[in-house]
Amino acid sequence: MSKIIVITGASSGIGESSAKLLAKQGNTVVLGARRENRLEKITQDIKNDGGQASFRVTDVTVLSQVQALAQYALNTYGRIDVWINNAGLMPRSELIKGRVDEWDKMIDVNLKGTLYGIDSALPIMRKQSSGQIINIASVAGHATSIGSSVYSATKFGVRAISEALRKEEAAAKSNIRITVISPGAVKTELLDHVKDLETKQNLDAFYHAYAISSDRVAQAIAFAINMPDDTTMNEIVMRPTSQQ
Ligand code: NDP
């Protein structure tokens, strides 16, 4: 069945790959992120390929903008079947470096952005008595490593929020499915925001050795969406085959 799917952080990486794959599968995708030129190009690429897509510039740290993205999708297409909270940042560093601004940004985008997405999509899905919210966490939301403290805290948090939300929706018999996708190293622009030199060198080497294409994560997202409505993929944890 063709679905209306909203994706945050759709201007690159996992969000872009997911938008393209889901549109290719016959769904209508609504892209949100801050970089308008990127959103415009990806939307045009999808349309040139015969798919249905539109976009709205959205900063997920601003609740009114996330709500506006949801209203845009609802007003344009009449419903929201799937909402993917994908926007994220990973400027990792050891705590002793005191990069407080980066901690704040990760909490704002990864954690509060996800909550704002839920706040914007959930009431619409409750009215429809159907829907699916997919939150992108990480293997760093299962285990910490040196330099991952705040990023891991946001991703452990995304998993905690998702688990409680799944219980709430099951108890309410709302038919809303809650899914977490937790990838390992994926080749995207995520490392571009790592400003701590030592951390960046380590991560660059690690990603160079291991990272897989963002298409793989898009496939996992599509798999979770395409399961029959009576079944929820609670969480998909995935890594490059050679990543421990
Ligand atoms: P990218 O850097 O390629 O994509 C991140 C996306 O988030 C961009 O589209 C960016 O768009 C968007 N974004 C950042 N800040 C905001 C904001 N304030 N408002 C709206 N959008 C924002 O990285 P990935 O594709 O890798 O990241 C996607 C998700 O996957 C993230 O949640 C990340 O934590 C997670 N992840 C990634 C892994 C990896 O190894 N790559 C592994 C595990 C999880 P714009 O700048 O235009 O706003």
Automatic annotation (TrEMBL):
The keyword Ribosomal protein does not apply. One of its GO terms (molecular function) is oxidoreductase activity, acting on the CH-OH group of donors, NAD or NADP as acceptor. Keywords: Oxidoreductase. PROSITE patterns: ADH_SHORT (PS00061). InterPro entries: NAD(P)-bd_dom_sf, Sc_DH/Rdtase_CS, SDR_fam. PANTHER family: DEHYDROGENASE/REDUCTASE SDR FAMILY MEMBER 11, DEHYDROGENASE_REDUCTASE SDR FAMILY MEMBER 11. Belongs to the short-chain dehydrogenases/reductases (SDR) family. This is Oxidoreductase. It comes from Companilactobacillus farciminis.
